[in-house]
Design a protein that fits this description.
Length: 104
Amino acid sequence: MNSKSELQLNNITYCVEGNSIAATKLQLRLNIYYPKEKDAAHFYFVSVKNYLLEKALDYSLSPEAIEQRREGGQAIDDKEIIVKKKEWNNGLYGLKFEISHLAT
């Protein structure tokens, strides 16, 4: 094992909410526990965000456009895209990307 524990590594989690008929919310989170390696984690996170947009909404954004939407939300048809950043401490933080179905 190297000098940093496995708990310190950056990670991505994925969650799907919905019912037996359809997914109503897709959520992707990036947790930065090791800031020295954040660039590689961000690159992968942006790639996965764009893949989800394409598959869930048949919609595409460039990685630069996704990064510019770091904070806030945007509606596309009957879906909402939300990107939020939560600062913890000592340079650690989490990013959340969410696609949810707007209630009609």
